[in-house]
Design goal:
Blueprint (H helix, E strand, L loop, with lengths): L1 E2 L2 E2 L4 H21 L1 H17 L3 H20 L5 H16 L4 H4 L10 E6 L4 E5 H10 L2 E6 L1
Antiparallel strand pairs: 1-2, 3-4, 3-5
Helix pairs in contact: 1-2, 2-3, 2-4, 3-4
Amino acid sequence: MIMFGYRSAGQNDEFCRGLDVWRKFETKARVDFPVYAALILFYDALYRAQINNHDEASSKAEELITFIGGLEESSTPNSEVFGEIKKQAFTLLRNKVSRSELDPYREIGRNQKVKVKYADGQTVERKFKHVAADLKEGRCELLRSL
């Protein structure tokens, strides 16, 4: 089953069905029940981050921050609840980058052989640990892992 651009499975099916129901009433609920609306937006963003859909999580976090900003301007009660949710949404935005984006070579073992190409055109086949620094500093590019 695919919902909202991500795949759901097992225990997440119930959550995804709940989001489907939420989408039907979201516009009215944002006006009548802003605290619940903010919480559901937050949990939606959090869920997307947990399944490594960081772009969607960031998009939902930005939507949440905008929504809460509008509520704060209209001096809605529960401002301390909104402040905490907004703080958590900013945390989601800061954590957007996944670990694999921080280290694209983390799946390669130190002793695994790789083939790299240097800027001067030289192609070398060596253990990853011998070319890791060159790869990370951009002196060569990974052609393939062997």
